[in-house]
Specification:
Layout: H1 2-16, E1 20-21, E2 27-28, H2 36-42, E3 48-53, E4 59-65, E5 82-86, H3 105-111, E6 115-119, H4 140-144, H5 149-168, E7 173-178, H6 180-191, E8 199-205, H7 217-223, H8 226-235, E9 240-241, H9 249-255, H10 262-274, E10 284-285, H11 286-298, H12 308-315, E11 332-336, H13 345-354, E12 358-362, H14 372-375, H15 379-394
Parallel strand pairs: 5-6, 5-7, 7-8, 8-11, 11-12
Antiparallel strand pairs: 1-2, 3-4, 4-6, 9-10
Helix pairs in contact: 1-8, 1-10, 5-6, 7-11, 8-11
Length: 396
Amino acid sequence: MLGIVTAVILIACVQALPSTVDSTDRQVVTTKRFDIEKRIARDGYYSESHSVTTSDGYILEMNRIPFSRYEKSDSSPKRKPVVFLMHGLHNSAIAFITLGAEYSIAYTLADAGYDVWMGNARGVINSRRHVTLDPDNYYDRREFFDYTFEDIALKDLPAMLSYVLEYTENEQLNYIGHSQGGTAFLVLNSVKPEYNKIFKSVNLLAAVGYQTYFPNKALSIAAQRTDNIYSLAVRLGSKELGPTQINDRKNIDELNENYPDVKEFALTSLEEYLDIPWEILAGASIKQYAHFGQNIRDRRFRSWNYGVLGNILTYGRLSPPAYNLRAINADITMHYTVSDILLDERDVLNMARVIPNAKVRRVARDSFTHTDFVIAPDSKTLVTDYIIEELNKKNE
């Protein structure tokens, strides 16, 4: 318990410290963007970057790989079946190319003839932009990072998906969501079931939803105090967990002169308790973590809990509304593994029982983990090859 609680608080406190202060005493932080285009080019593929603005002003980046490394642009069909990839918590589009040209799911899909699009949720390093708010401004950042995974589901996904369909002139697309990317899909299509019709097929990789049997004991204990942890982080001046400072080891090394062992302890805790490797950390709102924490604590898959009074004012009821998975009728395959420390097999099976057109698929390596879906080389043979075979059938 103390590991993850202290890790979150330490990182929040570190990031609340001013690095450069101007004459108005406002925090100014230099944030490095992942150069995804350069990485994709290095791996031998052509790519494009597209931006879309959400209904509440967040400017999101999407990365597109429209054809394989073996094709020339002028020989590629004008319209291809689209696959949209959505990353997990604290990840970004970089997760889908991190294994390189031979094993990454994004490249494998492109080589199989699909028009591949990768989203970047609000707040991650490539989508830290807003039409009026500056996430690096001491005052603006409180409002900028005041969002949960429900905002990603109900505002980010609609903006990105609508853009992709319009740009490619397709009426439907295929969706692949990892972890929170699966959560966002479940929330969107349960709250706004009209979106079900745009999905030709859906593959959810360790999609976190039901948490009745949440398997991580340390996090389960910490979740009992999730509201207190979140309130403390906000009072200390931070609502973001990376990447403004944890994405650069040099910055943390400098801070360690005054805060010994913060770097290694905090990063080790993220990897040990949350199964998030250093290489794909891309930033998140602390409120995102707190929302998952509330669901773990309450053993419910539902909206943000404002407390009794806040719930009455916001929802007109004492408790937050639960997400109705029965409203989801898209064609879904839920992939899961028995070694997942963030999602229990029983919760996956229970979700599949109430989603009308869902089936489950257990990964054939029992030691396969939550993030192995995007970082393990054998994910290609264990997961991606199956997905492509099914996609080919549905997109004939």
